[in-house]
Amino acid sequence: MAKKKKNKNKNKNSSNGEGISFPSFSIATRTKRLVLAVLCGTLALVFLFAFFDKAGAGGNALLSFSQDVLGKGVFLVPLLLLIAAFILIRLSEGGVRPVFLSLFLLLLGIDGLLAGFSRMKGLDVKDIAGLFGSFASLPVFATFGFWVTELLFGAVLAVALVILWQLLPKSAKEQLALKEESVEKFKKVFGEEFEAKSEELPSPPQEKQARLAGSSTKSGQKSQKEIPMGNYKLPPVDLLDKETGEPSAGDIKIYSAIIQKTLQNFDIPVEIAEVNIGPTVTQYAFKPAEGIKLSRITALQNDLALALAAHPLRIEAPIPGKALVGIEIPNKIRAQVRLRDLVESDGFKNSPSPLTFALGRDVSGSPVITDLAKMPHIMVAGATGSGKTIALNNLILSFLYRNSPAQLRFILVDPKRVEFPVYNDLPHLLTPVILDTQRTINALKWLTKEMERRFLVFSKARVRDIKSYHALHAQEPIPYIVLIIDELADLMATRGKEIEGMIVRLAQMARAVGIHLVLATQRPSVEVITGLIKANITSRVALQVASQIDSRTILDNAGAEKLLGLGDMLFLSAEFGKPKRIQGAYISDKEVKRVVGWIAKENQDVVTEEIEEDELAQSAQNGLDVSEFEGGEDPLYEEAKRVVMEYQKASASLLQRRLRVGYARAARLLDLLEQQKVIGPGEGAKPREVYLGREKGPLELLEQENTESPEEEPSSVPQSETTEDKDSRWFSP
Q1: What are 263-295's pLDDT values in tens digits?
Q2: Listed residue (214, 612, 594, 605) closest to 400, CA to CA
Q3: CATH numbers and ranges of domains, the chain
């Protein structure tokens, strides 16, 4: 019985014309217009040849038939057909019905005027106006007479000319003025089924206000262009390439009908509300009927992908800020987003923050501009080749287009050694690009000291953050510092515990003093992106990853495994409750070299004078040149000593497990413990003897050690005194 009912419903749908047959053989609307334009042009040439008796018997028959129908108006047919062909070629949106409607009204108006004039003069109406004009004007002429007949058909002719004028190509200014009116006409023609937005990316004159992830520009604040740069010259946007190409979403009507049909098969009635065409994907937003659970829709993801022949397919349920569900389908042709168009957008230019940078464009093609100062740190993660380094290049170049070295300084860490050395000529660098783990640790230690120094300066000035300090001390600005690490996984694999502790401390406290972290990794695992790091770095960018587990590690949500790569990303910040899909901007190596070379060349004299008196850069360089362990003492020595005393045995494997260090460092710690008489020497396979017991507290053990071996006092006591002196200097008012 159920089978019969199903077949009945199927036949019913087919009879109503709702079934979709052979969608792969559908012709795009643009192609249909071009085909019709070719036919109109060909027909116009046939009429021209027939006028000169060069079209053969078929052309003569066509001309004779047209003269019988249209009369003398047949001589305007080639001109009208050529105008129609021109309009069809230049038409960017809408159907072809208005074009042929205007042609019909033109012929009707011309033949009506000729017929009225012929009747008044007593001429042969069919010979002058043809059958079309004769029958069209007869009731009007008999009812209203000559003058009203001419007036009415003149009005018809004027309406036809107005329609043709609206269809002719307009300039950008005129298109902007008619934009809202065109949308209303589209809705009236196609009903309220759905709203389709333009397939073209917004051009700069028509661009929507960029969605600033931080906050919109407040009145009374200075825009970036008003911030004084001194003698420093910002690079021009001409060094960057423009966007080329347009996205192609395929046939929107067919895809919309397939979505409705597929969901209807599972008893989920929906109405397509709008279609947003972005550079990478097209989002079909629909409103389900009342009482439909969203879980039922998300469970049909594979069925929709099969019906649409689109993979991967992502469902956003619901769309933030709207009572709609969105299905994101990959475009047939992707558009490349470039940094130049984003830098020229109003949202980027009018932002007051020096740490504003461009992420890309969202699913509707609008620029996404955000502020690192409001994040205040960001994590970028994704599989190899998904676009992490290009995203970091976008961030760096966005900062270079807004800041001088007096406003912003960089510390770049590149364990891969091939990505960031191109920036070595930048005057914004505090140190040359860091390539090894030990110098990275020294840089983090120096940043921690610089953070503490700035807190002391702010406490004396009685301000709470760097923004307030700049408001009071505009003549002595403190530059922002951005630390960018291109591959965190490599550092965490070698010195994970130390690096994690320093990153967590900087992430917790450094935002107020203008120090911000940008971390990137291609291995988004819990060993690299630890719980402490995730808790303190809430803004994250997830590019394409291999599995759903990696996506949940980065975003605490699934979805990154369904991205398309090449800069396709999900952006999560405190501003959004759910990840936001963005197509990141592409920037080539040639563009990076052009910008860096221009800055180094044009600002050479200014930068040389600044570097000679650059105390901050000198301090950072001195911090990197510190030896691995000052005074031969390992920072983990006391921890290793405690472990050995607690377990009453000493071995490299024990220290490796408890301290999470490599074998080389564990063996070095054993040598230090042996030198300090904490453990005995190695005796082959026998375990080392531990001289200190665990029944006494640490203070008693130190006193006993000092009493028994006074010659070792300088190696242990001055260290504790130094630590206490350092702490007292930090906490003293």
Answers
A1: 999 999 999 999 999 999 999 999 999 889 999
A2: 594
A3: 26-174 (no CATH), 252-330 (3.30.980.40), 351-624 (3.40.50.300), 630-731 (1.10.10.10)
